[in-house]
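Mods, move this if it's the wrong board.
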Amino acid sequence: MNALLVMPIVIPMAGAAVSLLLRGRRALQCRIGIMTMTMLLITSIALIDRVWHEGILVTQIGKWPSPFGITIIADMFSAIMVVLASIIGLATAIYAASSVDSRRQSFGFYPLLSVLLMGICGAFLTGDLFNLYVWFEVMLIASFVLLVLGGERAQMEGSIKYVTLNLMSSAVFLAAVGIVYGLTGTLNMADLAEKLNSPLVGGVHTTVAMMFLIAFGIKAGLFPLFFWLPASYHTPPAAVSAVFAGLLTKVGVYALIRVFTLLFTHDVSHTHGIITVIAGLTMVTGVLGAASQYDFRRILSFHIISQIGYMIMGLGLYTHAAITGSIFYIIHHIIVKTNLFFVSGVANRLGGSYELKRLGGLYRQYPWLALLFMVPAMSLAGMPPLSGFFAKLALIRAGLEIEQYAIVTIALVVGVLTLFSMTKIWSEAFWKPAPVPSLDAARPRVEGIGILPHGTQIDDSAPNEKTASHECHNYVTPKPLMSRANWSMLLPIAVLALVTVSIGIGAELVLKVAARAADELLNPAGYVEAVLGARS
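Not the wrong board. C-alpha coordinates:
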Protein backbone atom coordinates (compact mmCIF):
# COMPACT_ATOMS: atom_id res chain seq x y z
CA MET A 1 0.00 0.00 0.00
CA ASN A 2 1.28 3.45 -0.87
CA ALA A 3 1.17 5.18 2.52
CA LEU A 4 1.54 8.65 1.01
CA LEU A 5 -1.84 8.28 -0.71
CA VAL A 6 -3.78 7.58 2.46
CA MET A 7 -1.98 10.07 4.70
CA PRO A 8 -4.18 13.06 3.64
CA ILE A 9 -7.11 11.06 5.05
CA VAL A 10 -5.38 9.53 8.08
CA ILE A 11 -3.72 12.74 9.35
CA PRO A 12 -6.92 14.78 9.85
CA MET A 13 -8.68 11.68 11.20
CA ALA A 14 -5.94 11.27 13.82
CA GLY A 15 -5.97 15.01 14.53
CA ALA A 16 -9.73 14.90 15.17
CA ALA A 17 -9.39 11.89 17.48
CA VAL A 18 -6.61 13.47 19.55
CA SER A 19 -8.52 16.76 19.79
CA LEU A 20 -11.60 14.94 21.06
CA LEU A 21 -9.53 13.30 23.79
CA LEU A 22 -8.49 16.81 24.88
CA ARG A 23 -12.06 18.01 25.29
CA GLY A 24 -12.22 21.06 27.53
CA ARG A 25 -8.62 22.10 26.84
CA ARG A 26 -9.15 24.69 24.15
CA ALA A 27 -5.58 25.91 23.86
CA LEU A 28 -4.30 22.38 23.29
CA GLN A 29 -7.05 21.64 20.79
CA CYS A 30 -6.05 24.77 18.89
CA ARG A 31 -2.40 23.72 18.80
CA ILE A 32 -3.33 20.19 17.73
CA GLY A 33 -5.54 21.61 14.99
CA ILE A 34 -2.76 23.82 13.61
CA MET A 35 -0.23 20.97 13.86
CA THR A 36 -2.63 18.63 12.04
CA MET A 37 -3.10 21.06 9.18
CA THR A 38 0.64 21.72 8.97
CA MET A 39 1.33 17.98 8.65
CA LEU A 40 -1.44 17.71 6.07
CA LEU A 41 0.13 20.50 4.01
CA ILE A 42 3.59 18.89 4.13
CA THR A 43 2.12 15.53 3.11
CA SER A 44 0.09 17.02 0.27
CA ILE A 45 3.16 18.79 -1.15
CA ALA A 46 5.06 15.49 -1.04
CA LEU A 47 2.11 13.82 -2.78
CA ILE A 48 1.92 16.29 -5.67
CA ASP A 49 5.69 16.06 -6.09
CA ARG A 50 5.45 12.26 -6.40
CA VAL A 51 2.57 12.49 -8.87
CA TRP A 52 4.43 15.08 -10.96
CA HIS A 53 7.54 12.92 -11.24
CA GLU A 54 6.07 9.39 -11.21
CA GLY A 55 2.61 9.82 -12.73
CA ILE A 56 -0.71 8.56 -11.36
CA LEU A 57 -0.45 6.82 -7.98
CA VAL A 58 -2.87 4.06 -6.97
CA THR A 59 -3.33 1.89 -3.90
CA GLN A 60 -5.90 -0.79 -3.05
CA ILE A 61 -7.01 -0.77 0.58
CA GLY A 62 -6.72 -4.22 2.20
CA LYS A 63 -5.00 -5.53 -0.95
CA TRP A 64 -8.36 -6.33 -2.51
CA PRO A 65 -7.83 -6.08 -6.28
CA SER A 66 -9.73 -3.53 -8.31
CA PRO A 67 -12.59 -3.23 -9.08
CA PHE A 68 -13.63 -5.08 -5.88
CA GLY A 69 -11.50 -3.25 -3.34
CA ILE A 70 -11.46 0.35 -2.22
CA THR A 71 -9.30 2.30 -4.64
CA ILE A 72 -7.38 5.38 -3.55
CA ILE A 73 -5.90 7.25 -6.50
CA ALA A 74 -4.08 10.52 -7.06
CA ASP A 75 -3.65 12.01 -10.50
CA MET A 76 -2.48 15.59 -11.02
CA PHE A 77 -6.00 17.05 -10.68
CA SER A 78 -6.75 15.35 -7.35
CA ALA A 79 -3.22 16.11 -6.04
CA ILE A 80 -3.72 19.82 -6.84
CA MET A 81 -7.03 19.80 -4.99
CA VAL A 82 -5.52 18.10 -1.92
CA VAL A 83 -2.75 20.72 -1.78
CA LEU A 84 -5.31 23.53 -2.01
CA ALA A 85 -7.45 21.92 0.70
CA SER A 86 -4.47 21.65 3.04
CA ILE A 87 -3.50 25.31 2.44
CA ILE A 88 -7.02 26.45 3.28
CA GLY A 89 -7.20 24.07 6.25
CA LEU A 90 -4.01 25.50 7.77
CA ALA A 91 -5.03 29.11 7.07
CA THR A 92 -8.43 28.52 8.68
CA ALA A 93 -6.96 26.79 11.74
CA ILE A 94 -4.68 29.78 12.37
CA TYR A 95 -7.37 32.35 11.59
CA ALA A 96 -9.84 30.66 13.94
CA ALA A 97 -7.45 30.80 16.91
CA SER A 98 -8.62 34.30 17.81
CA SER A 99 -11.66 34.79 15.56
CA VAL A 100 -13.79 31.86 16.77
CA ASP A 101 -15.15 32.46 20.27
CA SER A 102 -14.24 30.22 23.17
CA ARG A 103 -17.71 28.69 23.38
CA ARG A 104 -17.57 27.41 19.81
CA GLN A 105 -14.04 26.17 20.33
CA SER A 106 -15.15 24.33 23.48
CA PHE A 107 -17.90 22.59 21.54
CA GLY A 108 -15.42 21.06 19.12
CA PHE A 109 -14.54 23.53 16.37
CA TYR A 110 -11.09 22.06 15.74
CA PRO A 111 -12.12 18.36 15.72
CA LEU A 112 -14.93 19.24 13.32
CA LEU A 113 -12.55 21.16 11.06
CA SER A 114 -10.29 18.09 10.95
CA VAL A 115 -13.22 15.81 10.11
CA LEU A 116 -14.28 18.21 7.36
CA LEU A 117 -10.78 18.18 5.84
CA MET A 118 -10.72 14.38 6.09
CA GLY A 119 -13.95 14.21 4.09
CA ILE A 120 -12.70 16.69 1.50
CA CYS A 121 -9.39 14.89 0.97
CA GLY A 122 -11.22 11.56 0.83
CA ALA A 123 -13.53 12.87 -1.90
CA PHE A 124 -10.55 14.08 -3.95
CA LEU A 125 -8.64 10.80 -3.63
CA THR A 126 -11.33 8.15 -3.91
CA GLY A 127 -11.49 5.98 -7.01
CA ASP A 128 -15.06 4.72 -6.80
CA LEU A 129 -18.50 6.30 -6.76
CA PHE A 130 -19.83 4.78 -3.56
CA ASN A 131 -16.87 5.99 -1.53
CA LEU A 132 -17.33 9.40 -3.11
CA TYR A 133 -20.87 9.32 -1.72
CA VAL A 134 -19.55 8.31 1.71
CA TRP A 135 -17.04 11.18 1.79
CA PHE A 136 -19.77 13.59 0.74
CA GLU A 137 -21.81 12.48 3.74
CA VAL A 138 -18.82 12.88 6.06
CA MET A 139 -18.43 16.44 4.77
CA LEU A 140 -22.16 17.11 5.11
CA ILE A 141 -22.24 15.99 8.77
CA ALA A 142 -19.14 17.99 9.72
CA SER A 143 -20.20 21.09 7.79
CA PHE A 144 -23.74 20.99 9.23
CA VAL A 145 -22.42 20.90 12.81
CA LEU A 146 -19.95 23.70 12.04
CA LEU A 147 -22.79 25.71 10.56
CA VAL A 148 -25.02 25.45 13.65
CA LEU A 149 -22.19 25.71 16.19
CA GLY A 150 -23.21 28.63 18.38
CA GLY A 151 -26.94 28.08 17.98
CA GLU A 152 -27.84 31.58 16.74
CA ARG A 153 -31.20 32.04 15.03
CA ALA A 154 -29.73 33.02 11.66
CA GLN A 155 -27.45 29.99 11.76
CA MET A 156 -30.36 27.65 12.45
CA GLU A 157 -32.39 29.09 9.57
CA GLY A 158 -29.46 28.88 7.19
CA SER A 159 -28.55 25.38 8.26
CA ILE A 160 -32.07 24.05 7.61
CA LYS A 161 -31.89 25.20 3.98
CA TYR A 162 -28.33 23.94 3.72
CA VAL A 163 -28.97 20.45 5.04
CA THR A 164 -32.32 20.02 3.24
CA LEU A 165 -30.90 20.75 -0.21
CA ASN A 166 -27.76 18.73 0.44
CA LEU A 167 -29.82 15.74 1.59
CA MET A 168 -31.82 16.00 -1.63
CA SER A 169 -28.54 16.04 -3.52
CA SER A 170 -27.37 12.96 -1.63
CA ALA A 171 -30.63 11.15 -2.42
CA VAL A 172 -30.27 11.85 -6.16
CA PHE A 173 -26.61 10.88 -6.02
CA LEU A 174 -27.37 7.59 -4.26
CA ALA A 175 -30.15 6.78 -6.72
CA ALA A 176 -27.79 7.43 -9.64
CA VAL A 177 -25.14 5.23 -8.02
CA GLY A 178 -27.71 2.45 -7.64
CA ILE A 179 -28.73 2.67 -11.31
CA VAL A 180 -25.09 2.63 -12.43
CA TYR A 181 -24.41 -0.44 -10.31
CA GLY A 182 -27.50 -2.14 -11.67
CA LEU A 183 -26.37 -1.46 -15.25
CA THR A 184 -22.70 -2.35 -14.93
CA GLY A 185 -22.17 -4.33 -11.70
CA THR A 186 -19.33 -2.06 -10.61
CA LEU A 187 -18.77 1.33 -8.98
CA ASN A 188 -15.04 1.57 -9.57
CA MET A 189 -14.64 4.67 -11.75
CA ALA A 190 -11.89 3.21 -13.92
CA ASP A 191 -13.97 0.08 -14.52
CA LEU A 192 -17.02 2.22 -15.21
CA ALA A 193 -15.09 4.22 -17.80
CA GLU A 194 -14.91 1.01 -19.85
CA LYS A 195 -18.32 -0.49 -19.09
CA LEU A 196 -20.41 2.66 -19.48
CA ASN A 197 -19.26 2.85 -23.09
CA SER A 198 -20.81 -0.55 -23.77
CA PRO A 199 -23.79 -0.56 -26.20
CA LEU A 200 -25.72 -2.55 -23.56
CA VAL A 201 -26.08 0.58 -21.45
CA GLY A 202 -28.07 2.32 -24.18
CA GLY A 203 -30.07 5.48 -23.63
CA VAL A 204 -30.02 5.19 -19.84
CA HIS A 205 -26.49 6.57 -20.04
CA THR A 206 -27.66 10.14 -20.65
CA THR A 207 -30.36 9.92 -17.98
CA VAL A 208 -27.82 8.85 -15.37
CA ALA A 209 -25.48 11.63 -16.51
CA MET A 210 -28.22 14.19 -15.86
CA MET A 211 -28.83 12.72 -12.40
CA PHE A 212 -25.16 13.19 -11.57
CA LEU A 213 -25.33 16.72 -12.99
CA ILE A 214 -28.23 17.53 -10.63
CA ALA A 215 -26.61 15.89 -7.58
CA PHE A 216 -23.22 17.54 -8.01
CA GLY A 217 -24.83 20.74 -9.33
CA ILE A 218 -26.62 21.24 -5.99
CA LYS A 219 -23.38 20.80 -4.08
CA ALA A 220 -21.49 23.09 -6.46
CA GLY A 221 -24.20 25.77 -6.44
CA LEU A 222 -25.17 25.69 -10.13
CA PHE A 223 -28.16 27.48 -11.61
CA PRO A 224 -31.01 26.98 -10.60
CA LEU A 225 -29.97 24.87 -7.59
CA PHE A 226 -27.87 27.43 -5.73
CA PHE A 227 -30.34 29.26 -3.49
CA TRP A 228 -29.29 27.37 -0.35
CA LEU A 229 -25.79 28.83 -0.63
CA PRO A 230 -26.34 32.59 -0.10
CA ALA A 231 -28.97 31.72 2.51
CA SER A 232 -26.50 29.87 4.71
CA TYR A 233 -22.86 30.87 4.04
CA HIS A 234 -23.18 34.29 5.69
CA THR A 235 -24.54 32.96 9.01
CA PRO A 236 -21.61 31.22 10.82
CA PRO A 237 -18.35 32.88 12.00
CA ALA A 238 -16.08 34.16 9.23
CA ALA A 239 -13.62 31.28 9.68
CA VAL A 240 -16.37 28.74 8.94
CA SER A 241 -17.78 30.79 6.05
CA ALA A 242 -14.30 31.04 4.57
CA VAL A 243 -13.56 27.33 4.55
CA PHE A 244 -17.04 26.62 3.18
CA ALA A 245 -16.67 29.26 0.45
CA GLY A 246 -13.18 28.19 -0.50
CA LEU A 247 -13.53 24.44 -0.46
CA LEU A 248 -16.99 22.89 -0.14
CA THR A 249 -18.49 24.05 -3.42
CA LYS A 250 -15.24 23.09 -5.20
CA VAL A 251 -15.76 19.47 -4.18
CA GLY A 252 -18.95 19.55 -6.25
CA VAL A 253 -17.06 21.14 -9.15
CA TYR A 254 -14.31 18.53 -8.81
CA ALA A 255 -16.88 15.72 -8.95
CA LEU A 256 -18.53 17.24 -12.04
CA ILE A 257 -15.23 17.53 -13.88
CA ARG A 258 -14.21 14.02 -12.82
CA VAL A 259 -17.37 12.21 -13.97
CA PHE A 260 -17.93 14.30 -17.11
CA THR A 261 -14.38 13.67 -18.36
CA LEU A 262 -14.08 10.04 -17.26
CA LEU A 263 -17.56 8.47 -17.33
CA PHE A 264 -20.01 10.52 -19.40
CA THR A 265 -18.29 11.38 -22.64
CA HIS A 266 -20.49 9.38 -25.00
CA ASP A 267 -22.58 12.37 -26.18
CA VAL A 268 -20.45 15.45 -25.54
CA SER A 269 -22.40 17.77 -27.83
CA HIS A 270 -25.55 17.12 -25.78
CA THR A 271 -24.37 16.75 -22.16
CA HIS A 272 -21.59 19.32 -22.31
CA GLY A 273 -23.77 21.68 -24.34
CA ILE A 274 -26.23 21.67 -21.42
CA ILE A 275 -23.35 22.32 -19.03
CA THR A 276 -22.25 25.34 -21.09
CA VAL A 277 -25.75 26.85 -20.97
CA ILE A 278 -25.96 26.24 -17.22
CA ALA A 279 -22.53 27.84 -16.79
CA GLY A 280 -23.70 31.03 -18.49
CA LEU A 281 -26.91 31.21 -16.43
CA THR A 282 -24.96 30.53 -13.22
CA MET A 283 -22.55 33.37 -13.98
CA VAL A 284 -25.31 35.87 -14.72
CA THR A 285 -27.65 35.06 -11.83
CA GLY A 286 -24.80 34.94 -9.33
CA VAL A 287 -23.31 38.29 -10.24
CA LEU A 288 -26.74 40.00 -10.40
CA GLY A 289 -27.47 38.65 -6.93
CA ALA A 290 -24.17 40.06 -5.70
CA ALA A 291 -24.88 43.46 -7.25
CA SER A 292 -28.17 43.71 -5.34
CA GLN A 293 -26.73 42.99 -1.88
CA TYR A 294 -25.34 45.30 0.82
CA ASP A 295 -24.02 42.71 3.23
CA PHE A 296 -20.28 41.98 2.94
CA ARG A 297 -20.61 38.20 3.15
CA ARG A 298 -23.82 37.97 1.11
CA ILE A 299 -22.05 39.72 -1.78
CA LEU A 300 -19.18 37.27 -1.50
CA SER A 301 -21.60 34.33 -1.29
CA PHE A 302 -23.37 35.33 -4.52
CA HIS A 303 -19.97 35.75 -6.12
CA ILE A 304 -19.18 32.12 -5.34
CA ILE A 305 -22.11 31.20 -7.58
CA SER A 306 -21.04 33.40 -10.49
CA GLN A 307 -17.45 32.16 -10.24
CA ILE A 308 -18.60 28.52 -10.24
CA GLY A 309 -20.06 29.36 -13.64
CA TYR A 310 -16.57 30.17 -14.94
CA MET A 311 -15.21 26.84 -13.68
CA ILE A 312 -18.05 24.89 -15.29
CA MET A 313 -17.68 26.90 -18.50
CA GLY A 314 -14.37 25.16 -19.17
CA LEU A 315 -15.99 21.76 -18.67
CA GLY A 316 -18.80 22.65 -21.05
CA LEU A 317 -16.39 23.80 -23.77
CA TYR A 318 -14.50 20.53 -23.27
CA THR A 319 -11.23 21.30 -25.00
CA HIS A 320 -7.74 20.97 -23.58
CA ALA A 321 -7.38 24.74 -23.28
CA ALA A 322 -10.79 25.06 -21.62
CA ILE A 323 -10.18 22.32 -19.03
CA THR A 324 -6.78 23.88 -18.32
CA GLY A 325 -8.51 27.22 -17.79
CA SER A 326 -11.06 25.64 -15.43
CA ILE A 327 -8.35 24.07 -13.29
CA PHE A 328 -6.41 27.35 -13.20
CA TYR A 329 -9.63 29.12 -12.20
CA ILE A 330 -10.27 26.65 -9.36
CA ILE A 331 -6.73 27.15 -8.02
CA HIS A 332 -7.12 30.93 -8.12
CA HIS A 333 -10.63 31.02 -6.73
CA ILE A 334 -10.08 28.78 -3.70
CA ILE A 335 -7.28 31.06 -2.48
CA VAL A 336 -8.98 34.35 -3.30
CA LYS A 337 -12.47 33.56 -2.05
CA THR A 338 -11.24 32.19 1.27
CA ASN A 339 -9.15 35.32 1.75
CA LEU A 340 -12.05 37.68 1.05
CA PHE A 341 -14.14 35.98 3.74
CA PHE A 342 -11.18 36.29 6.12
CA VAL A 343 -11.03 40.03 5.39
CA SER A 344 -14.77 40.35 6.00
CA GLY A 345 -14.25 38.85 9.46
CA VAL A 346 -11.57 41.42 10.31
CA ALA A 347 -13.77 44.24 8.97
CA ASN A 348 -16.58 43.02 11.19
CA ARG A 349 -14.30 42.93 14.21
CA LEU A 350 -13.03 46.46 13.57
CA GLY A 351 -16.22 48.05 12.26
CA GLY A 352 -18.80 46.13 14.28
CA SER A 353 -20.95 44.87 11.39
CA TYR A 354 -21.06 43.02 8.09
CA GLU A 355 -23.61 45.52 6.74
CA LEU A 356 -21.86 47.85 4.31
CA LYS A 357 -24.11 50.77 5.29
CA ARG A 358 -22.89 50.46 8.87
CA LEU A 359 -19.26 50.26 7.89
CA GLY A 360 -16.94 52.98 6.65
CA GLY A 361 -13.62 54.66 7.19
CA LEU A 362 -11.63 51.44 7.19
CA TYR A 363 -9.16 52.75 4.61
CA ARG A 364 -8.26 55.77 6.73
CA GLN A 365 -8.11 53.82 9.95
CA TYR A 366 -6.47 50.66 8.59
CA PRO A 367 -4.68 51.22 5.26
CA TRP A 368 -2.88 47.88 5.48
CA LEU A 369 -6.19 46.05 5.77
CA ALA A 370 -7.42 47.99 2.74
CA LEU A 371 -4.39 46.79 0.77
CA LEU A 372 -4.98 43.20 1.88
CA PHE A 373 -8.58 43.49 0.67
CA MET A 374 -7.65 45.02 -2.67
CA VAL A 375 -5.38 42.15 -3.69
CA PRO A 376 -8.01 39.34 -3.61
CA ALA A 377 -10.84 41.70 -4.63
CA MET A 378 -9.09 42.87 -7.79
CA SER A 379 -7.96 39.33 -8.50
CA LEU A 380 -11.56 38.12 -8.29
CA ALA A 381 -12.57 40.88 -10.70
CA GLY A 382 -9.85 39.77 -13.11
CA MET A 383 -7.52 42.74 -12.98
CA PRO A 384 -4.00 42.18 -14.36
CA PRO A 385 -1.47 41.02 -13.33
CA LEU A 386 -3.29 39.11 -10.57
CA SER A 387 -4.32 35.46 -10.71
CA GLY A 388 -7.93 36.12 -11.74
CA PHE A 389 -6.84 37.89 -14.91
CA PHE A 390 -4.94 34.87 -16.21
CA ALA A 391 -7.73 32.49 -15.14
CA LYS A 392 -10.35 34.45 -17.07
CA LEU A 393 -8.00 35.00 -20.00
CA ALA A 394 -7.38 31.24 -20.32
CA LEU A 395 -11.12 30.50 -20.43
CA ILE A 396 -11.96 33.33 -22.84
CA ARG A 397 -9.19 32.31 -25.23
CA ALA A 398 -10.44 28.72 -25.08
CA GLY A 399 -13.95 29.90 -25.95
CA LEU A 400 -12.74 32.08 -28.84
CA GLU A 401 -10.71 29.21 -30.29
CA ILE A 402 -13.87 27.17 -30.85
CA GLU A 403 -16.04 30.22 -31.68
CA GLN A 404 -18.30 30.01 -28.63
CA TYR A 405 -18.93 33.74 -28.70
CA ALA A 406 -22.08 33.75 -26.55
CA ILE A 407 -20.48 32.24 -23.46
CA VAL A 408 -17.37 34.38 -23.99
CA THR A 409 -19.50 37.54 -24.07
CA ILE A 410 -21.28 36.49 -20.88
CA ALA A 411 -17.95 35.83 -19.18
CA LEU A 412 -16.68 39.30 -20.14
CA VAL A 413 -19.85 41.09 -19.00
CA VAL A 414 -19.93 39.17 -15.71
CA GLY A 415 -16.30 40.15 -15.16
CA VAL A 416 -17.27 43.84 -15.40
CA LEU A 417 -20.19 43.35 -12.99
CA THR A 418 -17.87 41.52 -10.59
CA LEU A 419 -15.61 44.57 -10.61
CA PHE A 420 -18.67 46.73 -9.84
CA SER A 421 -19.54 44.58 -6.80
CA MET A 422 -15.99 44.73 -5.49
CA THR A 423 -15.87 48.51 -5.88
CA LYS A 424 -19.17 48.70 -3.97
CA ILE A 425 -17.57 46.94 -1.00
CA TRP A 426 -14.53 49.19 -1.34
CA SER A 427 -16.49 52.43 -1.50
CA GLU A 428 -18.89 51.54 1.33
CA ALA A 429 -16.66 49.77 3.83
CA PHE A 430 -13.25 51.27 3.13
CA TRP A 431 -13.44 54.55 1.23
CA LYS A 432 -16.44 56.49 2.54
CA PRO A 433 -16.14 58.23 5.94
CA ALA A 434 -17.18 56.30 8.99
CA PRO A 435 -20.90 56.73 9.75
CA VAL A 436 -21.51 59.51 12.27
CA PRO A 437 -23.34 58.37 15.36
CA SER A 438 -26.09 60.45 16.89
CA LEU A 439 -25.40 62.16 20.20
CA ASP A 440 -27.17 59.51 22.19
CA ALA A 441 -25.06 56.85 20.59
CA ALA A 442 -21.94 58.87 21.21
CA ARG A 443 -22.50 59.50 24.89
CA PRO A 444 -20.47 57.57 27.44
CA ARG A 445 -23.29 55.18 28.22
CA VAL A 446 -21.85 53.29 25.28
CA GLU A 447 -18.29 52.41 26.03
CA GLY A 448 -15.63 53.47 23.60
CA ILE A 449 -17.82 54.99 20.96
CA GLY A 450 -16.20 55.54 17.59
CA ILE A 451 -15.05 55.44 14.82
CA LEU A 452 -15.61 59.21 14.67
CA PRO A 453 -13.87 61.11 11.91
CA HIS A 454 -11.62 63.85 13.14
CA GLY A 455 -13.52 67.11 13.71
CA THR A 456 -16.98 65.57 13.72
CA GLN A 457 -19.60 67.84 15.27
CA ILE A 458 -22.12 66.05 17.39
CA ASP A 459 -25.76 67.03 16.96
CA ASP A 460 -27.15 67.79 20.40
CA SER A 461 -30.77 67.73 19.36
CA ALA A 462 -33.05 65.19 20.96
CA PRO A 463 -32.21 61.87 19.41
CA ASN A 464 -34.67 59.35 18.14
CA GLU A 465 -34.42 56.63 20.74
CA LYS A 466 -34.83 53.79 18.35
CA THR A 467 -32.28 55.18 15.89
CA ALA A 468 -29.80 55.98 18.60
CA SER A 469 -30.05 52.51 20.00
CA HIS A 470 -29.64 51.05 16.55
CA GLU A 471 -26.55 53.11 15.75
CA CYS A 472 -25.16 52.59 19.21
CA HIS A 473 -24.98 48.94 18.38
CA ASN A 474 -22.83 49.68 15.34
CA TYR A 475 -20.13 51.76 16.93
CA VAL A 476 -17.36 49.94 18.64
CA THR A 477 -14.16 50.92 20.25
CA PRO A 478 -11.46 51.60 17.64
CA LYS A 479 -8.98 48.78 17.94
CA PRO A 480 -5.38 48.65 16.79
CA LEU A 481 -5.10 46.46 13.70
CA MET A 482 -1.78 44.95 14.68
CA SER A 483 -2.89 43.91 18.14
CA ARG A 484 -2.05 40.57 19.69
CA ALA A 485 -5.69 39.54 19.34
CA ASN A 486 -5.66 40.19 15.58
CA TRP A 487 -2.34 38.75 14.50
CA SER A 488 -3.65 35.24 13.93
CA MET A 489 -6.37 36.66 11.70
CA LEU A 490 -4.01 38.88 9.71
CA LEU A 491 -1.27 36.32 9.16
CA PRO A 492 -3.30 33.96 6.91
CA ILE A 493 -4.78 36.97 5.07
CA ALA A 494 -1.31 38.30 4.29
CA VAL A 495 -0.01 34.87 3.25
CA LEU A 496 -3.00 34.16 0.98
CA ALA A 497 -2.64 37.62 -0.58
CA LEU A 498 1.00 36.79 -1.25
CA VAL A 499 -0.03 33.46 -2.80
CA THR A 500 -2.52 35.34 -5.02
CA VAL A 501 0.21 37.67 -6.26
CA SER A 502 2.57 34.72 -6.73
CA ILE A 503 0.03 32.86 -8.88
CA GLY A 504 -0.22 35.93 -11.09
CA ILE A 505 3.56 36.33 -11.35
CA GLY A 506 4.10 32.60 -11.87
CA ALA A 507 1.06 32.10 -14.08
CA GLU A 508 3.08 30.20 -16.69
CA LEU A 509 4.14 27.58 -14.15
CA VAL A 510 0.60 27.23 -12.77
CA LEU A 511 -0.75 26.89 -16.32
CA LYS A 512 1.81 24.16 -16.97
CA VAL A 513 0.61 22.19 -13.93
CA ALA A 514 -3.04 22.75 -14.90
CA ALA A 515 -2.30 21.64 -18.48
CA ARG A 516 -0.76 18.42 -17.17
CA ALA A 517 -3.92 17.77 -15.14
CA ALA A 518 -6.08 18.52 -18.20
CA ASP A 519 -4.01 16.06 -20.25
CA GLU A 520 -4.77 13.27 -17.81
CA LEU A 521 -8.47 14.16 -17.62
CA LEU A 522 -8.98 14.24 -21.39
CA ASN A 523 -6.95 11.08 -21.95
CA PRO A 524 -8.42 8.77 -19.29
CA ALA A 525 -6.65 5.67 -20.63
CA GLY A 526 -3.79 6.37 -18.23
CA TYR A 527 -6.19 6.61 -15.28
CA VAL A 528 -7.92 3.36 -16.26
CA GLU A 529 -4.64 1.54 -16.82
CA ALA A 530 -3.25 2.76 -13.49
CA VAL A 531 -6.27 1.36 -11.59
CA LEU A 532 -7.08 -1.80 -13.49
CA GLY A 533 -3.43 -2.61 -14.03
CA ALA A 534 -3.15 -2.85 -10.23
CA ARG A 535 -5.65 -5.74 -10.07
CA SER A 536 -3.02 -8.27 -9.19
